[in-house]
Fold these 4 entries.
Entry 1:
Amino acid sequence: MSDRPADKRAGFARWLGSRDCTDCWKANRDADSESKQQWLAARRAEEQQAADDWAEKFDMPPLEGPEKALQWGARSRHQLMTTAHTALVIEGTWDEADWAKLEEKARTITRAGWWIDQRDAAGTHLLELLDAATEADRGTENPFR
């Protein structure tokens, strides 16, 4: 407290009195981390199931890349595509024919890392992003399915 100006000590002491000490704070944080990890694992499982169901329903190809990136890429693709559909079709001026063209372009991008890199993009930018994708981002499978 000696490094604080005299007129700020009382307020700081009051604030400190309402907080846990460092040891108690660390103990609470560590004890709570297990429940956070369980919640996060359950949340990721829900998101992954939704992404897998969506990919099957809309005939999206499996993603390629390192094993660590595949599920994250699938969740990122699902989130970006649903955000784009909401922004462009539901709230925007696109019709289903316009969306079908965008979906076909999206099916060609099979590199999981590409979808992960675009995870923070706005849905309205998806068409531009798909057009900017390189051959390295596209799969080697038959594009005519």
Entry 2:
Amino acid sequence: MSLTLALFPEPENNVMRIRAVSDTEIIRLQRSDYSGWVPVRMRPGQLPAKDIVIEDFEAPIGRPIRYQVQAESQTAVYAEGKINSRDVVLSLPQIPAQYAVIPVFSQYDETRRMPGSTDLIIGRTDPLITILPLSDRQGTLTYVFDTYSDARNVEKLYAQGYPLLLRQPCHDQMDLYHTAEQAQIRRGNESLWELTVQYVEQNRPGGDLVGTVGWDYQSLINNHADFVAMEAVYDDYGAVLIGVRNDG
């Protein structure tokens, strides 16, 4: 029996393409992050299968990423890759086609309520201490744009009300699932525009992946004269999805 896992970073789309092939049904594909192993979001019905191509639009940018694939009656297989990009990306996790690349990420601050809570009790000189869960982050994000229209388009992403994912290449563990409680657009320096949002961190949202970015059938039509020409370049349909050509 065999189980293979291959990674194909796409820095131009800030996505990791993953292909797994097995003799038995693949049942799980996971990515490791600072909180542990999390399932890679995929389209409905992609698992179980023996040959899968998955696009991970939530993979960290600019840092090593570790993946694990598991199949029935086989030992788990691991692979590590990296998306070599300097982009800051804001996207809707379930619908990655709704995204924005942020030109300048100028401000980030966070506040977290600490676990210890103290209460003064009548008749006692020392306070009563209650241990509470550490709260999630909340604070301010500021993005800078060349035009007012660009700022409004990102504001519209927030206005949908769904949790968004902020990915950035500079600081480990700072990627953020969040919603906005308030947004403000203002004119900045040198004719630039700033969008400032008051954010609240959210748990990683559930739901299947809906759609992709950066690939369509029109691109195949533009690059290949007919099906025979395409067949001569790609070994199989999985190679078409990944973009791995056999002509070197």
Entry 3:
Amino acid sequence: MRTLPDVTLQYPEPWFQVPVEPGADLDSWAVEHAQRIVREAATADPEVARTFKGTVKGIAKELRGRAEGFQNRYLTAAFFCIPPGLASTDVSLELMIIHPGEGDPDPSLEWFTEACVTRELGEPDTRDVDLPFGPAVRIRQNYLGGKKNWFGGRPVLNSLIYGVRPPGQTDLVSVTALWQDVAIGDVIEEWTDEMLRTLRFAHQATPPG
């Protein structure tokens, strides 16, 4: 049996991890985080507390429904982000380890870029970057998501995608942040860039500074 690299990723509040393993208790997880979100909103800045309209039941239902979509997708980890004062969010981050099957070529950063890039809403911003975890490609692009109902249009999805190739490994680590609200794009990009700089193997020490 092949063992995947054990990777870790540090994440700041207001991000929180989503259980992705099949059979996870999503009900308890969703209620726990919904209660936390409502509790924190009630003790936040008075303006935030006054405008907050979320309920534990409503937030838990949304969280559970969104988390179900992550299961059975072979993700290594996934995260949601609900900015302070909001009772809903469409911000997520997915981490997946891509490994070649028997006889397949190693997944290179060039292959990853070609597989991920889309130009349906313009030219993507693609950059080669060096991370502590290894060389990487950073792809910032927008594309159209699926229809949410029969009569509605397709939403514009904002994405920041990283492909990282750890030295000495045949695996490639893929990290994708997705969101719809363009007003929060700059901060989501900043948070995602910071999180990627903390990507490590579990046994790898974090450099000082």
Entry 4:
Amino acid sequence: MSAARRPFGTRHPIVVLRRLRAGVLGMVALSALLYLVVVNRAGEQIAAAQRTRAAIADIQEAHVEAGKANDALEKASRTRAVNLIGPGAEFDNATARVGTLLTSATGGNAAGEQGLHHFQFVQGQLKTCVQLANSAGDDGVVWARDALDDEPETDGADEVRFTGGLMESLEDLREIESTALDEQLRSRWLNPSLLWPLLLAPVAVMLLLVVATGLVVARHFRRYPHPALGVALLATASVAVTTCVLTRVGQDELDDPLLAGEGWIMAIALLLLLGAGALAYLAYRPRIAEYRFPRS
């Protein structure tokens, strides 16, 4: 065969096909690796976001319980028997519930050290409120109610966070954790503008290699590329696209998300990639064998 008939300059066709096969198999392997990395990291981010979402729900419930504690203090103050019976069982139950919910919510804190500091501050407010209600009679009930529903300070038109009573501080805490939740869901591992290029890059390279293979096979062997090569490309692309689509999760989908890392989805994806590798290998085999063992 003359140099003009050989693809890619003077390189032997079998060498070219072997290199193309290695490149295609490498892209399939890279796709599998990226899939595993993305679903693992994205799964961690979504699990953290779910914990934060649960913490926010606990804080909201704690706010409701704080309101019940305030109502219980108002009812106790009307009885004028605080010195005898204290703030009452309703107040004790509500504040105990607030403490339990705050402890539970701390485990889902997503605001870092600042968030932990705010949790500690709110728990301190709760402790102060309970101490005032139980130790100073009628005056203590008044002071405890102020500690529960005092209005926050303002800086111009804006309220200053964590300068009001317990109920206001719980609202401030909920807002901080909600902001942190939004940041979690904007993580690079959940960001479509980053995931699509990352996961589709190996597919794009694989497509170029498949096209190059088609040119080599058509020019030298006067045949069409093996259909299995196209199937392998489609299988690899389907895994990449499905991963990108399922990895995008919003707040409304956190309760029961369908993730690319789900057990059955992962099993299908890995089987598809394994099949893509096998098909790609088999697609090159007839042409390489034909050149090594030419027909007589």
